[in-house]
Design goal:
The complex is a heterodimer. Chain A is an alpha+beta fold. Chain A has helices at about 5-15, 70-85, 120-135, 200-205, 210-225, 240-250, 255-260, 320-325, 360-365, 415-420, and strands spanning about 15-35, 35-55, 55-65, 105, 140-160, 165-185, 185-195, 225-230, 230-240, 280-285, 305-310, 315, 335, 345, 350-355, 370-380, 385-400, 400-410, 410-415, 425, 430, 440, 445, 450, 455-460. The termini of chain A are far apart. By secondary structure, chain B is of the alpha+beta class. Chain B has two domains: about 5-230, PmbA/TldD superfamily (PmbA/TldD fold, 2-Layer Sandwich), CATH 3.30.2290; about 240-460, no CATH class. Chain B is built from eleven helices and 22 strands. The chains are: A alpha+beta, B alpha+beta.
């Protein structure tokens, strides 16, 4: 009997609310460093997650035993765990938001599955090695190089109590390129990256490996020549990548319903003005090619576009089925689990600010004393208070409306909603920019985020 | 499992067939792989049985159980290496896995440093297996979660965002064509919690509490709840401060990200060989203040990073990394050791799902003479940094980030909690001027760290 039949059988044998998710993942990781292949890893991770909702509580069991017996045992344990937890849970789960059961097969990479240009393993390694060599050939100031490629091919089958029966095929891949440089005993590094839902061919459709390598070299050289700056409050322009980080990390997490319930800064503030009227921010799963693409989530809910902020006014939070019922709304398909060993959590997909009408050059010309900030250097962090701190990959001084010298060691911080309130111009450009970014919330999730260029006020941390 | 008690007991022989399943699986795959004409093969097995109870929003959210078993195979042929792993352990899948590893090797450019280690004597580390672990049920963890929450609920302003109480039994086994074969088991128990406090419109910053031990009874969850509650309440009413240069006292938790992670990067032999460590060519030279001594010890009794062998089957050992500020030794695995023309010192890290990398075991910074309270007493004007939310560039050492749960100290006295305050500087430079290290140390994951007082840090407020 095949796995789908076994899942349905176990569901049908039990009276209790059950959700069974088979998740098979084949992944490939390749890493080239300084002319050597340092990682060449093929991994298979396969198993079933069983989630029970009994007695007002969840129970969750993950197993790699895919026999009918193994699945029955997992279901029994999940039901038992839920029952035991339910007996002491204070606020029992009242139910789940109703959904239309989804059935069928969804292939997220369908558009380029027939591509004949996808190189085989040897071909991929060769291309990565060539790009790696290209970085170190750039000059004596470039001391080291590193390229990491990873691909994930997921196949899921989700069967639920209400009758959802779906098969999901989800290929995602990403690339990261790092250049290291040295000048006068001072070392720097800079990276570029890109991620898509789809294949290798899709990944390099717009930017070739060589383009990414050139960009990394250019960035590290700028960092080598850049000076440190002193901190303070400044008028700045954020590029789509930083706007994406702000939208995801600093705003997006605060509107995840579980964080809202824990007392995030936007609790009870639906309908209030939280940003400049120029700002509209959404989360949307089903965007072709986008790295955070989801069509049906891990609770079997079809994704839709959730408007979080519209014209500066807070409109919606992000939900799973449990929170959607509590908040008397519909779930938008934001329940995601990274592997079969993970339970679905409220996660973002592709989160972005909609483009506006301003011209980037005019925005720059309007700044007397500020910075032009592009991309995230090492990482970003934010709290449910929406206070954030991001370090900047590429930064330039803006003086009297003109872009000046590159600067480095910059971080931007503040309270994200205060920053969005200070937005006085939104450009007409648009780009996703998280690159190979994963979101971490106890477990990983592939996400993307982006937007236009924004002009706003932030706190800059420097080192002078 | 191969624990002290079972090894010495009469019943050990009886349990052996079942208990050495991992090692036997590895050995049979090595035999099968060798027969296909590979030069060398290594099979690593890992089993993780875990139970966890998750608290969210001050209430029990999820009881979880997971049982993972997987193998990772490295094969070597003519200097090429391939790695493949799976958690599907049926005969057919394992046969395919061997083939997949061979395919990965065929496409690997030869590198003469790709090799396996030769066997050395392995010894078990005491006190890393709690016999009670096999009998622990979800109910035991639920009871822990309750006593933790009782402390939290003493103050209604406090909300636990998430907290996890987990129990894990980990079994690792390895066999190689060079004759290494062994198996080891360990238990560990963790409590991690994140909370905030709310008062009217004010929300405090998040703070974190973390405890880990190889023994279930060693964790004091009530103490953990009390400590977290007090920390988040103390950060209510926080204000920003004017910018100044002053001292910062890193708690063990904030030191992990700000100081320990760049330190581990800098002493990783691979980064040194690649020329991307700030301490390349510095072996035997002074790299830090004389107060800094760093030991990495994989044989520490009761250490969560302890074990019989590393990811390549070499014995764990005690390594003096930095002594009185002088860089003594880098961390090597077999590959980087071959590159350097020396022997590995047993720092191969990782599990069954990845090929070996380089990682510390129990990474410890030696404590100093004073207590953390005495160190605070020495601060003229500065901050206690409970948690650091920011970045550190391990190549240059530049860091810049926000202080969370920070307290302003003036003339040795706590003045007020602070918010929206950033600290920045260069961590490698600061390591050369450490003002003090506390006598008491805390365990954070596999690190054992004191409070660390650093001077002349740029503190940016309003």
């Amino acid at each position: 009997m095949n796995i789908a039949e076994n899942l349905k059988k176990v569901r049908d044998e039990n009276q209790e609310w059950l959700e069974l998710r088979y998740h098979h993942r084949d992944s490939l990781k390749l890493q080239v460093k300084n002319g050597s292949l340092t990682d060449s890893i093929s991994t298979t991770l396969s198993g079933v997650a069983v989630r029970a909702l009994v007695n007002g509580s969840w129970g969750f069991v993950s197993t790699s035993d895919l026999t009918l017996e193994g699945l029955r045992k997992a279901a029994d344990e999940a039901i038992k765990a839920a029952r035991e937890a339910g007996s002491i849970k204070e606020n029992r789960i009242q139910g789940l938001a109703e959904i239309e059961p989804v059935q069928g097969r969804f292939d997220l990479g369908e558009e380029d599955h027939n591509s004949r240009e996808e190189p085989d393993l040897a071909g991929k390694i060769k291309l990565l090695m060539e790009a790696d060599a290209e970085i170190r050939k750039a000059g004596e100031d470039i001391t080291a190089s590193q390229i990491a490629y990873s691909e994930i091919k997921d196949r899921k089958i989700i069967v639920t109590y209400e009758g959802t029966e779906v098969e999901i095929i989800d290929p995602k891949c990403d690339i990261g390129v790092v250049a290291f440089g040295e000048r006068e005993n001072q070392q720097e590094r800079a990276h570029t990256s890109h991620g898509v839902t789809g294949s290798w061919v899709k990944l390099f459709a717009e930017r070739t490996l060589s383009d990414l390598a050139d960009k990394a070299v250019e960035l590290v050289r700028k960092r080598l020549e850049a000076d440190y700056v002193s901190g303070g409050q400044y008028q700045v322009i954020l590029d789509p990548a930083l706007v994406g980080v702000l939208a995801h990390e600093a705003i997006g997490h605060t509107v995840e319903a579980d964080f809202v319930e824990s007392g995030s800064v936007v609790q009870g503030r639906i309908g209030e003005r939280v940003a400049s009227e120029l700002v509209t921010l959404v989360d949307e799963g089903n965007i072709a090619d986008a790295a955070g693409r989801v069509i049906v989530d891990d609770e079997g809910v079809k994704t839709s576009r959730t408007t979080i902020i519209e014209g500066g006014v807070l409109k919606n939070y992000l939900h799973n089925r449990e929170s959607a019922l509590k908040f008397e709304t519909k779930p938008g398909g934001n329940a995601r689990a990274f592997t079969y060993r993970d339970e679905p959590l409220i996660r973002m997909t592709n989160t972005y600010i909609l483009p506006g009408e301003s011209d980037l050059d005019e925005m720059i010309a309007g700044i007397a004393d500020g910075f032009f900030l592009k991309g995230l250097a090492q990482g970003g962090q934010a709290d449910s208070t929406a206070e954030f701190m991001f370090d900047v990959l590429e930064a330039y001084r803006i003086e009297e409306g003109k872009i000046g010298k590159p600067v480095k060691g910059l971080t931007l911080s503040g309270q994200a909603f205060e920053v969005l309130k200070s937005v006085d111009a939104v450009s007409s450009d648009f780009e996703f920019g998280l690159g190979r970014g994963y979101c971490g919330k106890g477990q990983a999730a592939k996400v993307d985020a982006g937007g236009p260029y924004l002009c706003c006020r932030v706190m800059i941390g420097g080192q002078q | 499992m191969m624990t002290d008690k079972q090894d010495k007991s009469l019943s050990w022989q009886k349990g052996k067939d079942e208990e050495l399943k991992g090692q036997e699986l590895c050995q049979s795959l090595v035999a099968e792989g060798t027969s296909t004409g590979l030069d060398d093969i290594e099979v690593y097995y890992q089993q993780l049985k875990s139970l966890e109870v998750v608290i969210e929003k001050n209430d029990l959210q999820l009881p979880k159980s997971d049982n993972y078993q997987g193998v990772g195979i490295r094969v070597f042929k003519n200097g090429s290496m391939g790695f493949a792993s799976t958690n599907d352990l049926d005969q057919n899948s394992l046969k395919m896995l061997l083939e997949q590893a061979a395919v990965m090797a065929e496409n690997y450019p030869p590198d003469r440093n790709n090799r396996l280690a030769n066997p050395e004597k392995l010894e078990r580390v005491p006190d890393i297996y709690d016999e009670r672990a096999d009998n622990i049920q979800l109910g035991d963890l639920i009871a822990r979660a309750r006593s933790f929450m009782e402390e939290i609920k003493e103050d209604e302003r406090v909300t636990v965002d998430t907290a996890g109480f987990s129990a894990t039994i980990a079994t690792d086994a390895i066999a190689t064509s060079r004759g290494i074969k062994s198996q080891d088991s360990q238990t560990y128990f963790e409590t991690q919690a994140m909370a905030l406090a709310r008062e009217e419109d004010e929300v405090s910053s998040f703070d974190i509490e973390y405890q880990v031990s190889c023994f279930f009874e060693s964790l004091d969850v009530a103490e953990s709840g009390r400590s977290l509650r007090d920390k988040v309440v103390a950060s209510l009413g926080a204000e920003t401060v004017d910018s100044f240069r002053g001292e910062i006292l890193l708690t063990p938790f904030s030191a992990v990200m700000l100081l320990v992670s760049p330190l581990i990067y800098a002493v990783n032999s691979e980064n040194v060989q690649d020329g991307i460590s700030p301490w390349k060519g510095k072996k035997g030279k002074q790299v830090a203040d004389k107060k800094l001594t760093v030991i990495d010890d994989g044989t520490l009794p009761g250490g969560v990073g302890s074990g019989k062998f590393d990811r390549e089957g070499l014995p764990q050992n005690r390594l003096e990394v930095i002594k009185d500020g002088y860089l003594q030794e880098l961390m090597y695995n077999t590959y980087t050791a071959a590159r350097a023309g020396r022997k590995s010192n047993g720092r191969a890290g990782g599990g069954a799902q990845n090929a070996p990398d380089i990682a510390p075991s129990n990474f410890m910074i030696a404590g100093g003479q004073q207590t953390s309270q005495e160190l605070i007493g020495e601060i003229k004007r500065g901050l206690v940094v409970n948690r650091y939310s920011g970045s550190v560039d391990p190549v240059s050492g530049d860091f810049s980030g926000v202080v969370k749960g920070g307290q302003l100290i003036e003339q040795g006295e706590r003045v007020k909690p602070v918010r929206e305050v950033m600290i920045s500087g260069n961590i490698y430079q600061m390591m050369q001027n450490i003002a003090g290290l506390s006598r008491e140390r805390e365990d954070i994951m596999n690190f054992k760290l004191p409070y660390i007082l650093l001077e002349d840090v740029a503190i940016t407020g309003k």
